[in-house]
Amino acid sequence: MSERQVAAWPRGMSLPVAAEYCGVGTATLNREGPKPVPGLVALPVLLGLYTAQRRADVIKLPWSAYDGRTITLRQSKAREKARILVIPVHPVLRVALDAAPRTAVTICARADGHSWKIDHFAKAFAAARTKLGLPDDMQFHGLRHSAASRMAEAGATDAQVQAITGHETRQMVEFYTAGAKQKKLAKAAIAKLPKRQIKNSSRTGSEKPVFEK
C-alpha cells in the first residue's frame, strides 16, 4: 500500500496510552483518546506518532539512537539518498522511552526481550488493532500521516514538517499537510464574516436580517 493510500488515524485514537508497556499513568500520556494500544505494540505506535517515521525504521531503531533529548536515524527507504535525521523527542515520548526496559539492542522489543522482525510485528499490530475494534485499513503508516497533520495543525511549515518526516520533496509533504491547511484557511475565512446579526425594517414594514461588521 502506497503512502498516498493510507489515511491518518482518527484523532481520538491518535494518542495511544503506553501505560501497559511502561507503567506511565493514562493522564500523562493520553489526553485525547480513551483507547489504549495493547501490550508491547504501544511503544512502537508512540514512536511512530511522535517521530513520523515508517514502521521499518521504528522497529529497528536502536537505543544508541536516543540520547535523552533527540533521536538520530538514517531512513531505510532510498538509503543512498536519505539524510541523517535528528529529531527532538517530545516530552510524552521521552516519558515512555525513559521508563521502557532495555532488553534488546532495539528500543522496540518483543515479550521475550528480542528485537521485532517485521512480519512478527505486523501480526502483533494487527492483533492489537482487532482488540481495539479498529478497522483493518488502519495501518501503522497512518501514524506518519497523523504526525505530519498534527504538526501542520499546530502551525508548523511544510519545511519544518519535512525536517521530521524526511520526505525527499516538498510536494510529498504537502499531501500530508493539505488537510490541516484547508481547515486553518477555512476557519480564518469564516472568522472574517460579520459576527452579529441586527434587524433592519424596510419601507414595507417587513424585517430583513442585516449582519453588522
Mind sketching the topology for me?
Layout lengths: L18 H4 L3 H4 L12 H10 L3 H5 L10 E5 L9 E5 L2 H9 L18 H15 L9 H12 L4 H8 L4 H22 L4 E6 L5 E6 L1
Strand order of the largest sheet: 1-2
CATH superfamily: Intergrase catalytic core
N-end to C-end Cα span: 49 Å
What general form does the structure show? globular
Total helix count?
9
Overall pLDDT level: 77
Query: Strand share of the residues?
Result: 5-15%
In words, what does this structure look like?
By secondary structure, the chain is mainly α. It has a single domain (3-172), classed as Intergrase catalytic core (hpI Integrase, Chain A, Orthogonal Bundle). Helix content is 42%, strand content 10%. A two-stranded antiparallel sheet has the order 1-2. It has a two-stranded antiparallel ribbon with strand order 3-4. A hairpin with a 5-residue loop joins strand 3 and strand 4. The protein is globular, with a radius of gyration of 22 Å. Mean pLDDT is 77; it is low at 1-35.
What keywords describe this structure?
disordered N terminus; two-stranded antiparallel sheet; hpI Integrase, Chain A; mainly alpha; 9 helices; 42% helix
